[in-house]
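Bit of a strange request maybe. I'm writing a small parser for structure token strings and I need a real example to test against, not something I typed by hand. Could someone generate the tokens for this chain?
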Amino acid sequence: MKGPVFSLLALVITSVLLTPSPGDGSTVSPVRDFSAVLGQSVTLRCPGNLSVPIIRLYIQRKQTNVFINGFDDQYLLKVHPEYRNRTKVNRTDLSMKMSNISISDEGSYMCVIFYSRTSKEEPVINLKVTAEYSVPTVKAECGERIHSNGPATGGKSCQLSCSSTGGYPLSVVEWPVLHQSLIRNIENKSSEDPHYKTWTINQTIMYSCDKPTNVSCSIGSAVSHPITICQEDSFPLRVIAATAVVMAFVLILILGLVLMKCCRRRLRPRPEDPALEVPLADCHSQPQNS
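Reply from user aminoacidic:
Good idea to test on real output. This should exercise your parser:
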């Protein structure tokens, strides 16, 4: 029985000695995740032990070790120009407020917390930046479904396009209502803004349908306004308008002919007109002697 008891006791002692605590050198804390919206502000909090005095705090980028902001009991810390006017450290809760968030702020940060000159803790913070996509624009052009052996009846093919701008991270277009088996992808385009690093997304598909369907597309969390495709055939408005123009022209032509005919009748002398019985004066006849 002594062997197992001594083994258990040794394990407990080893666990106690390896437990991280301020004053025993550098320790590692769990990673904390934060998210921020492009152009807005976020408060990053370092998971330190606030029950003991903290003499120094460095907040820096993990990959490049670029110092961002912090405090020191003995020295005045020089803040990096990129963060000088948009970061502010709160010593009470070991937090840093960062404003005017950009895509370049995304990444991992390290909080170097000094409890003494020899004891420190280095928790890691991950910052995720997001930007809402604009409300997608969806357009449709529908026509009779075409097959290799000629046009088919009872169905249509609609070319649908969906586009949105200003979002981050890169996303994809989704068509929640449409049946995937009836979708044929034609074109996918995505472009990154060189300054803001946000994305513009465009997609064009071909969809086959045989009944009216309400369609909307989504990119990220942004959803377009619905439109109706594959509606039943109806007399097009442009045909109605063209017919109305033609009929108006014909009516105007007929009215003009009628008016011209009436004017000609008025100008032409009639046989029963009494004026016809009055002889016209002969300018060459000689006056009679009285």
